[in-house]
Each structure stands twice: as C-alpha cells, then as structure tokens.
Design a protein that fits this description.
Blueprint: H1 12-25, E1 30-36, E2 61-67, E3 73-77, E4 82-87, E5 90-96, H2 100-108, E6 113-117, E7 122-129, E8 133-139, H3 146-150
Antiparallel strand pairs: 1-2, 2-3, 3-4, 4-5, 6-7, 7-8
C-alpha cells in the first residue's frame, strides 16, 4: 500500500528527526525517550538476557516519542522498521516507520477523522496519508475523547 511514497527512514534516529520536523511545523512540544541495545528494547525475544548487540552486531534502537498538544499523540519506534502510534488512546500497531511522520502530520493537519458505522456498529478513527494510504482503528465508545468527538464526520 503506497509504502514507497514516504522518504525512507533507515534508522530510529532518522525517524525521530523527521517527527521532530513535523512537531516544529505544528509548534508541538516533543519528548523522546531512547532505549538502545538489545537488552533494553521491548521486542527482542531473540536477544540473550545480557546481550547489548543484535546477533548481526548492530545496536538495536527503540524510541518513544510523546507530542504535546491536542490530540495526545505518542509514537513508539521499533528497531524492526515499524511503529506503534497512539492517538488519544486509540492504538495503531504496525505502522511502517517510514510512514510515521506523515501519520503525525495527517493527525495534526486536520486530515484524521472519526466515522461512525451502523453495521457493524462503532466509531473508527481514520488517518489518511498521501498516496491513497489509510489507517483505520476501532474507537471504543467509552473512549471517545473530546478531540475524537470534534472530529466525527
């Protein structure tokens, strides 16, 4: 799905820099927590308990980015080229790392919106990205925050 249209971000650092650029565009505060080394990253089940390097000798790097402003957005960048992005409590797993900056831009640029459905009943947070790429996640009714409510279309 349109993955090739985003600039390639080969490392976690490159992704953090790209998200920082978006945060500056929208004048958002940004906090970054870095976990570097296989012993520190959350997903490394293959790493030995005291290993710091991956089997190939590289240093895995994970970062957790929190953005100020409304809605609340956090981006967890994993060494495996993907990210988990949370928008006002709605979790999008497995977003390609290259798409993370465009995703944040879509949310803060007013493109993200909530759509209700009669069948199956529910609310969906829809985040369109350039190039006909769209992410959708179910919003549980009790978690419809003021920001999500304002963005119902």
């Amino acid at each position: 799905m349109g993955r090739h249209q985003h600039p390639h971000l080969p490392t976690t650092e490159a992704a953090v820099r790209a998200i920082r650029t978006v945060a500056q565009e929208f004048d958002l505060e940004m906090t970054v927590t870095d976990d570097i080394g296989a012993d520190r990253t959350s997903r490394r089940t293959s790493a030995d308990a005291f290993a710091v390097l991956d089997p190939d000798g590289s240093l895995p790097h994970e970062a957790y980015v929190e953005l100020g402003g409304s809605p609340s957005v956090s981006v967890q960048l994993f060494p495996e080229d993907d990210a988990k992005i949370t928008v006002d409590g709605v979790v999008f797993d497995d977003v390609p790392r290259d798409a993370a900056p465009a995703f944040v831009r879509s949310v803060h640029g007013g493109l993200a919106h909530v759509k209700g459905r009669f069948f199956p009943p529910g609310w969906w947070l829809i985040v369109p990205l350039p190039g006909d790429e769209t992410y959708k996640e179910l919003v549980f009714r009790h978690t419809l925050t003021p920001w999500l409510s304002r963005n119902v279309r």
